[in-house]
Design goal:
32% of the residues lie in helices and 23% in strands. By secondary structure, it is of the alpha/beta class. α2 crosses α3.
Length: 297
Amino acid sequence: MGKVVSPHAWHSAPGAAPQGGLRGLGRPGAAHEKMSILQVSGVAKSFAGRGGETVALQATDLLVQENDFITILGPSGCGKSTLLRMVAGLDTPSGGVITLDGRPVRGPGADRGMVFQSYTLFPWLTVLQNVCFGLREKGMPAAQQKETARHFLAKVGLKDFENHFPKQLSGGMQQRTALARALANNPRILLMDEPFGALDHQTRELMQELLLGIWEEERKTVLFVTHDIDESIFMGNRVVVMSARPGRIKCDLPVPLPHPRHYAMKTTPPFAELKARLTEEIRIEVRRAAGLEPALG
Ligand code: ADP
């Protein structure tokens, strides 16, 4: 079974506070004992193809605790999306078990909210109707649907756009709608697969701040896939680094930055130190994927 490796001296266990790090620095949830809500145990995935089997993910363990914001960082093709899709119930593991609140994941469910990189709004529905969609499916009364949707649209700054159709919105606004839609359903965990990957740099930074602000208020549990090192540090309270294909978790590092976070933190020594460490980890993986470093056994 794959193990969560912790080669760095200041890392103890997944989700643990670093020595002299997060403790007492205002991390949401730090004051009380946190519960593990998502458990990934020995989860592996292979895809059968004409040329044989592709091992996308080796047996992998991951524990996600209530209020965690975990960023999954790794080079392209290392199995990040595969892992997230299995948690979402969109793909089935070839081995191992995923449980959410102790119940095995057997398919998609409203307890997991998904935001993808590509724009996934229904083009024939307005912004408000898109956000109401899941609530209607749940059988929520129409007035309550609208009230809930408007609450989250206000949070993402789209109060005045509820009657617009997706094609009338910029990419950033579409992703804000997708975020409001996911949040309105009040999922146990928010699963985000490179949600800002298609946005320009400035919009991406705006979205990062917006999502962090919402997380700091709502204390949602988030699993966030990215290949951007800065994004992984700025957003996460833990960065889980994946190795090149076949993927596995090679290290799991706490982020020693307090909340609320703002952009100035990107120039602080703790940020720079973690960035240097992650840059090296990712560089090795990119070289390994390109065949320039020996693969690990
Ligand atoms: P990442 O998200 O890290 O870029 P993915 O999880 O998308 O990586 O893919 C991991 C590996 O699994 C890649 O080699 C990819 O080609 C392969 N893979 C993903 N989905 C499928 C599929 N449906 N069929 C075959 N191979 C797949």
